[in-house]
Amino acid sequence: MTVHRARAAAFAAVLTAAALSLSACGSAGSTAKAGDAAKAGTKDAKDATSAADFGGLDGLVAAAKKEGKLHVITLPRDWANYGKIIDGFKAKYGLEVEEENPDGSSQDEINAINSRKGQDRAPDVVDLGSAFALQAVKDGILAPYKVATFDKVPDSMKDATGARVNDYGGYISIGCDAKKIANCPKTFADLLKPEYKGQVALNGNPTKSGSAFGGVYAAALANGGSLDNIQPGIDFFGKLKQSGNFNPVESTPATIEKGETPISIDWSYLNAGYSDQFKDKGVDWKVSIPVDGSYAQFYNQAINKWAPHPAAARLWQEYLFSAEGQNLFLGGYATPATFEALKKDGTLDAAAAAKLPTVEKPFTDFPTVDQINAAKKVVTENWTKAIAG
Prior knowledge:
There is one protein chain. By secondary structure, the protein is α+β, with helices and mostly antiparallel strands. Helices cover 36% and strands 13% of the residues. The protein contains 14 helices and nine strands. Strands 3, 4, 5, 6, 7, 8 and 9 form a seven-stranded mixed β-sheet that branches. Helix 6 packs across helix 7 (231-243) and helix 7 (231-243) packs parallel to helix 14. The two termini are 28 Å apart.
């Protein structure tokens, strides 16, 4: 992944140490069978709020196949297993998937929705961080849609209309190349040690990147801050810069492989994935979730209100929130939103769940929308000043 995506996810549910397990509620909603289309009252695909509006899943599949393709944006193939997810979708339904701008940000996704209305090259679906998803719902640019498993996603992880729904998440973690760093840091306090001079990088700029924003929030919690006060996190990185430990190179798989960013603060599912990715390339990538700055986030799935392929967009959502799609996220070291429901149903990939990084101090008190927006404003105003010079 050569991307620093502007993602700040919606948060909810209690995450356990072993698997970020989420409390789910309810049971799967039912959809009408394809033969019941007349009873259900078929709508135009762009107005459909569930598969029932197509007469059931079979009707949705048929409508999507008639459109022939899906246009996605800003989905790096090595981010939360999206490569396998996209390929799985194509194989299952035989649709073409156009992949655009994997190196982009959530803001790029919003910009594309707003600037390409009526164009075939507009994104059909988006994968957004909380600050962006919540604003997009408020701005009315996302289409309400409830997948068949909508009731299995905790209420606190979704918009009631289905306009945006959490799909996967993870913890802020510290990744380290043990072949280059004698003693890998495990906490934010460790990162200030003189031995890490010029070694500590972020995955992007926190004013634009959700992973970097999460890193600053975690650092705030580790340094006397709170969900209402992110400034200590900014101050921490200011100290890291003054000490000479902060590396301004934005961390990517390429910089890790080249040894340019031997210590990287990033999402646990990305860092854990690098452990596998670089195992045969001379990189011994270790991953720790800091006990002094435990912080987790989830990302949101949504459909462009003006999606050029509205049926395919809705079928994509159904796939992502199916047991198959959710377990594919898990296979990429991300925790799916329906983790507990999958576990209860006996459809959870237990082997993949067992590989999730250990969390010694679960993050359970998620920030509100107002807290996220306030923190984002503080970071936007103060980040550059803190690391300038």
